[in-house]
Design goal:
- With about 140 residues, this protein is an alpha+beta fold.
- It has helices spanning about 30-40, 95-105, and strands at about 20-25, 60-70, 85-90, 110-115, 120-130.
- A 5-stranded antiparallel sheet has the order 2-1-3-5-4, with helices on one face.
- A hairpin with a 4-residue loop joins strand 4 (about 110-115) and strand 5 (about 120-130).
- The two termini are about 20 Å apart.
Length: about 140
């Protein structure tokens, strides 16, 4: 893993049913930052304003973040990506649905796998750039 953070901040409430763990992989640091930028705009996160970055490790890059999806945001503008991004979302079904809907409005999102537990779901998405959108803002 190339990008790690300390324990979740108080704003992400680790025991909350609205908490969703997001893991991004198979993408550039810039595309990971674009996806996290969309999520940070609409949901409190343990990531703050940290931008994903690569290290010198030879392993594939994976970026993680926790987001508190206690509400559904309004309209989200489309964002262009340089390449596809694999996003794994894990958490309560309602919260995961809110994040998935937000990602689907900002990017083209294809479901590539799901798993359901007693009180938790995991969804894997393949995100590509929106058909109409804007490049991510510099520094986001």
């Amino acid at each position: 893993m190339n990008d790690t953070h300390g324990p979740a901040s108080r704003t992400t409430q680790p025991d909350s049913p609205d908490l969703v763990q997001v893991v991004l992989g198979e993408c550039s640091a810039a595309d990971a930052d674009a996806v996290f930028g969309v999520l940070r705009t609409h949901f409190p996160s343990d990531r703050g304003e940290d931008a994903p970055h690569r290290t010198e490790q030879p392993r594939p890059a994976v970026w993680t973040g926790a987001f508190l999806a206690a509400h559904s945001p309004g309209p989200v503008r489309g964002v262009l990506l340089a390449g596809p991004v694999t996003a794994d979302l894990q958490g309560g079904p309602v919260a995961v649905g809110r994040l998935r809907a937000t990602l689907a409005s900002a990017f083209v999102a294809a479901d590539t796998g799901t798993a359901s537990g007693d009180q938790e779901v995991q969804v894997q998405l393949r995100l590509t750039g929106a058909e109409h959108g804007e490049p991510p803002l510099p520094g986001r």
